[in-house]
Amino acid sequence: MNTTANSNILSSGDLLKNWQANRGLTRRVIEAFPEKELFEFSIAGMRPFSEMTKELLAIAGPGLDQIVNGSDQILDEERTEWNSKEALLKAWDETTELINSLWSKMEDSKFEERIKLFGQYENTVFDSITYFVENEIHHRGQGYVYLRAIGIEPPFFWEK
Amino acid sequence: MNTTANSNILSSGDLLKNWQANRGLTRRVIEAFPEKELFEFSIAGMRPFSEMTKELLAIAGPGLDQIVNGSDQILDEERTEWNSKEALLKAWDETTELINSLWSKMEDSKFEERIKLFGQYENTVFDSITYFVENEIHHRGQGYVYLRAIGIEPPFFWEK
């Protein structure tokens, strides 16, 4: 019998640590692509991995900024400066710092708030952030297939 | 400033709900494959989706049984009865029930315990279960690429 059904098992800091560990692995997947294949290779009409990376960048920083600061955000997946592998990695690293900075302002009570992100996706903050992480793992798994298909060994999945 | 740094933000029940929601989506991905492609289609020498499904089945039920009951388990990904789509879906549904049943015996304190699963992977129970879920999302993302490559529209990712 579960005698502590109303208590909780994950801290805010643990959730941040897991997200950033996942982001670290995704960064290694971006790095593993040659420049050309990052922007051009795809299977069955799906997006190249650069486009998936842009989606993840467009969600993480702006989404968390809306959550923490209440800013109005749109989902902007096409920035002209995101035009090279180097630029994507730079944006990735800037987002890493931005997430850490915004996270330090998050009260635990924030995770229960319902917020409509990007003007369209309404959910609790906890569920939105869980979606951010799961969506990243989902696309990264697709990136693994792309890497295999172009003959490159992806990083070990469990080296998160 | 985070004034509640030591409190927690996720309940055991929420974690179970998220795992089962992910498992429900994975079930729809298994269902979306034609029988032949489930067992034979692959890209770049990767495993067919049936093999990934067997890995997920071999981890979830036996892993949680070891966590809850302390049973000795090996990672057994090749059972002779897992030889058809129907058999995999049946095993999937049995695992759904098994997880719910085992979960009802989990105390919250269990999630902090360090356990060496399958005789080789030592981690806290929370991190092991997080790995179970993330590993499933990772392989399911690969299954999405397979489905696209054989001309089948996968279920919506966000309909978890």
UniProtKB/TrEMBL annotation, chains A, B:
Keywords per UniProt: Metal-binding
Family membership: Belongs to the DinB family.
SUPFAM superfamilies noted in UniProt: DinB/YfiT-like putative metalloenzymes (SSF109854)
Endpoints of the signal sequence: none
Protein name: Damage-inducible protein DinB
Species annotation: Moheibacter stercoris
Keyword Transit peptide among UniProt keywords: no
Pfam family, one: DinB
Protein's UniProt keywords contain Metal-binding: yes
